[in-house]
Design goal:
This protein has ten helices and 73 strands. The termini are far apart. The protein is mostly beta strands. Among the domains are: 180 residues, Sandwich (Immunoglobulin-like); 76 residues. The strands form 18 sheets. Strands 37, 40, 41, 42, 44 and 45 form a six-stranded mixed sheet that branches. A five-stranded antiparallel sheet has the order 1-2-28-27-26, with no helix packed on it.
């Protein structure tokens, strides 16, 4: 990101419809200048009134009203080196009452800097418009290390919690061991964090510690990111969907599951990272595969810096885009879409070739009031909105009049006109007497000439995409406008389903006196402000009128009182009754797809008091294996019809994980393990839960198994699943009844831990374990008495074993492979200083063809032979070559009776049938006794 953020910026694009980009047929781009000037645009967010906050890298915070000039609220102190600065913005869900926003930035402190998430309160002017920031409250802060991959995005969730992304803060110019912070749950770097409103960890986080909720581990939701620069929360899954910026080769899009490990720096995309993957700290690090990864480059399907986006939940785009995840690459100026299922698995790959190209440099995506995709273009400094005019909601024209008969002047007011996309409108007036004015504003006056007493005026309103709405207005210039007084409930009144809405009205007219009042009603259904549409309701006449509030979801009621005088001039007054709403939040004991269908499938929504509707839970959790077991306090069916009471409502779906399923279904296991002592933990692909007498583990490779006793102690001591992989068997007893063991699988590398009371618990894995298994496990060499260890020269690896007092070993080098050595031959090898003498075993102990002897060959060219009669003796070098040439033990010499020794400068080995001597002068010479 640094190259663009620190480079020269292009001129700001003026407001209007852009034409440079290549877009799918029917789409257009609408640009809004942010007024940041040379301060690179980094983030933006909508306020409840659909105005906008924008921020710049250099610390600028600006407010852009829906229509009119913006204003700068403040310029905060920031560190702007490379890709640091003011980069993240979120508006609190309760902004209407709290006026709180959240900002992420880097700040110089002394000779260094810190990275900070802070809450600010927006101050307002007399008109209620934002005017500044005050009351900074630091919620999260960590010292900075490098000038890249710092604190990134923040999302303020509807439940009041905060999501925060932070890069690894490593040095991108080299293999930086500091990047391994991304793997360390005690470091915030390379993480997505889930925080409470006061900055502590959320209890549902995978490493949450109830005794220390402020610890870094308690805040971690997922790890293993390089730079999760932008992310959003999927409204159905409730999980982050993030773009992770790559290093040498790959850019990633990730559906981020609780406790997942996205692998950096050991993995990039689906591949081990060159330079990092061979580091010792990367041993055993599992990789949660991205749902999509693309390579670096300038090719059609390539890019260089991914920007995570959002799921499109509007209704104006063609159906093929609804529910799609939009994301971009700001370096190559592209936007793609993809789809994934309830398990976060890719179901529709990005378009090839991409259909949104040349669109600028997207560095943040959000949704316009009607759901349109809007992104911050750092290259132009504009907010760019992808709109589809064919699905645009047409504005609704409304107007009232007031007439001065003495001057025949009529005042028109089109302010009641509405654009549910919240676009600024243009007002065109046709006064019905041949005079027309365009783009004249919502309020105009017009004098009418004498001679004609009735006209029909027309108001036409236009939105920026060209959609129009019209209304006709009866005008009588010489006639007074009727006066209508509407009495309504108090201004802040809201209504529950079936609650009566009562109104009254009275009307007088200068020419006609009292006038009868006619009432009409409409239920305006607004799944979003952009998709409002009306359903006609019951009408009536008289001075009073009442109706029960609608049970239609996401709706308000409009009550209109109308009077018409004898000249045909009409006056209307409308009262809008708003619903009394409460937030419904769906939660689950395991991450799962939860939805409120009537609210568009989201898992949290504002719903009218007294409304009845259904909620749905997926049969399986996002992990694909946790099973729905019922709603807490509700039915066991996945669908539950609920009625909203007088307060917010939280509903929790219970899911039984594979660990729950096995524990609950196995009485013998429950008796063995005892009661649980902690909540289930998700650690990358491995889940585990602690019980009084052990742990249950689940993983895709091992299923659900338990580990207990000294085997568990050893497993945890060597680093658990992160170092040794997940268990693939229960703790079991060997056939001889002596030992307990578990098997494990570390990315395909099988390992075991064996325990006996005599030997303790020890690990064995890799090639040494394969050799031990080939020798019939403990029935061959016995039980391991050491973990796998490295030899002093750094070349070899070994385990020692014991069986009935007989010590054995398996030694491994990449050159020799793994070989067993034991008994008298091993004793001799040990007496000769192990590998420092003859080198490493190049064979297992083998039997000679005549059946009398046993031997091992070694890497430095020597051998040790053993018979009961001769004992174990070493033979090597030129003497060994001569003995071999004579036919080994089949020669007249038979087996060695001594090691090689030296007498008066002569090298010699004695054999059963003679001896061999060696000097440089004579070479190797054999002689019989």
């Amino acid at each position: 990101m640094a190259a663009v953020l620190t480079g020269a910026l292009l001129p700001v694009v003026s407001t209007g419809v852009a034409s440079a980009a290549t877009l799918p047929q029917g789409f257009v781009l609408q640009d809004t200048a942010t007024g940041l000037g040379d301060d690179p645009l980094t983030d933006f967010a909508y306020l409840p009134d659909n105005s906008t906050f924008v921020i710049g890298k250099n610390g600028t915070v600006r407010w852009l009203p829906v229509d009119g000039a913006g204003r700068t609220l403040t310029t905060l102190p920031v560190r702007t080196n490379e890709d640091l600065g003011l980069v993240g913005l979120a508006v609190a869900p309760d902004y209407a009452t709290s006026h709180n926003i959240y900002l992420t930035r880097s700040i110089n402190v002394g000779s260094g800097f810190v990275m900070r998430l802070a809450r600010f309160t927006v101050t307002v002017d007399a008109a209620g418009a934002p005017s500044g920031l005050s009351g900074e409250k630091t919620l999260f802060e960590v010292p900075g290390i490098s000038n890249v991959h710092g604190i990134d995005g923040v999302v303020a969730a509807a439940d009041g919690t905060l999501w925060l992304s932070i890069g690894d803060n490593g040095d991108f110019r080299k293999v930086d061991p500091g990047a391994l912070r991304a793997q360390d749950i005690t470091s915030p770097n390379g993480k997505i964090l889930h925080l409470t409103a006061d900055g502590n960890g959320v209890p549902g986080n995978p490493y949450y510690d109830g005794t220390n909720p402020g610890s870094t581990a308690s805040k971690v939701f997922a790890r293993g990111f390089r730079n999760p620069f932008r992310f959003s929360i999927d409204p159905n899954l409730g999980l982050p969907v993030a773009g992770d910026v790559g290093w040498n080769t790959w850019e990633e899009v990730n559906v981020v599951q609780r406790g997942s490990n996205q692998g950096w720096p050991c993995w990039e995309g689906n591949n081990p990272t060159s330079g990092y993957s061979t580091l010792a700290q990367c041993t055993g690090v599992a990789n949660q595969p991205p749902i999509y990864a693309y390579q670096h480059g300038s090719g059609v399907m390539q890019g260089n810096s991914v920007t995570g986006g959002i799921v499109y939940n509007g209704s104006s785009y063609p159906a093929s885009y609804r529910g799609s995840f939009f994301f971009g690459d700001y370096v190559t100026n592209k936007i793609w879409t993809l789809r994934y299922d309830d398990q976060g698995k890719l179901t529709q790959a990005p378009e090839n070739p991409p259909v949104f190209t040349g669109i600028g440099g997207p560095v943040k995506f959000a949704a316009a009031p009607n759901g349109d995709i809007v992104y911050a273009d750092i290259l132009s400094g504009s907010l760019r909105r992808l709109s589809y005019p064919g699905g645009n909601t047409a504005p609704v024209a409304k107007a009232t009049t007031t007439t001065d008969p003495d001057t025949r002047t009529v005042s028109f007011d089109g302010s009641p006109s509405v654009d549910y996309d919240n676009d600024a409108l243009k007002y065109d007036w046709d006064f019905g007497d041949g005079n027309v004015v365009t783009d004249a504003g919502p309020k105009v006056t017009h004098p009418y000439a004498a001679g004609t007493e009735a006209f029909t005026a027309t108001l036409t309103v236009r939105d920026p995409l060209g959609a129009t709405g019209s209304a006709t207005i009866a005008v009588a210039p010489g006639n007074h406008t009727p006066e209508l007084t509407l009495t309504t409930p108090r201004n802040d009144a809201t209504f529950a389903v079936d609650q009566q809405v009562a109104l009254s009205a009275s009307a007088t007219d200068a020419e006609d006196g009292s006038l009868p009042v006619t009432w009409t009603t409409a239920v305006r259904h607004c799944p979003s402000e952009a998709t409002c549409h009306a359903h006609p309701g019951v009408g009536g006449t008289g001075a009073t009128f009442s109706q029960p509030f609608t049970e239609h979801p996401d709706s308000r009621m409009e009550f209109t009182a109308t009077v018409t005088d004898s000249a045909g001039v009409t006056t209307s007054r409308t009262y809008t009754a708003m619903p009394r709403q409460h937030r419904i939040t769906l939660l689950s004991t395991q991450p799962a797809a939860l939805s409120i269908p009537v609210e568009g499938g989201v898992s949290s929504a504002m719903v009218t008091e007294g409304a009845s509707f259904d909620v749905e839970a997926a049969p399986l959790g996002i992990d694909g294996v946790s099973k729905f077991t019922g709603w807490q306090g509700g039915p066991s069916d996945t669908t539950w019809v609920v009625t909203v009471g007088t307060s917010d409502l939280t509903l929790t779906a219970n899911y039984a994980t594979p660990i729950d399923q096995r524990y609950d279904s196995d009485p013998a296991l429950r008796a063995k393990l005892g009661l649980p002592t902690a909540f289930e933990v998700t650690d990358g692909p491995v889940h585990y839960r602690a019980y009084m007498n052990g742990r249950l583990y689940w993983s895709p490779v091992g299923g659900t198994v338990y580990v207990s006793g000294p085997v568990l102690d050893k497993y945890l001591a060597v680093g658990g699943s992160n170092a040794f992989g997940p268990p693939t068997s229960d703790t079991a007893t060997t056939p001889d009844g002596v030992a307990q063991y578990n098997h494990f699988n570390n990315n395909g590398n099988v390992g075991s831990i064996y325990y006996t009371s005599a030997t303790g618990a020890h690990t064995i894995y890799g090639e040494i374990r394969k050799k031990w298994a080939a020798l019939d496990y403990e029935r061959g060499l016995g039980y391991p008495t050491t973990d796998e260890l490295g030899t002093p020269d750094g070349v070899g690896r070994y385990n020692h074993f014991i069986k009935g007092g007989n010590v054995g070993s398996i030694y491994y080098t990449s050159a020799t492979g793994a070989h067993a050595i034991y008994g008298e031959i091993r004793k001799k090898w040990a007496a000769l200083d192990y590998e420092r003498g003859l080198g490493y075993p190049a064979t297992d102990e083998l039997g000679t063809p005549d059946g009398r002897g046993r031997y091992n060959h070694f890497s430095l060219g020597g051998s040790i032979y053993y018979t009961v009669a001769t004992g174990a003796h070493m033979v090597k070098g030129e003497i060994r070559k001569r003995w071999a040439a004579l036919g080994w033990e089949y020669s007249y010499l038979h087996y060695p009776r001594t090691d090689e020794y030296v007498t008066n400068g002569v090298y010699r080995s004695d054999f059963e049938g003679g001896y061999i001597t060696f000097t440089l002068a004579t070479g190797a010479v054999d002689r019989p006794w």
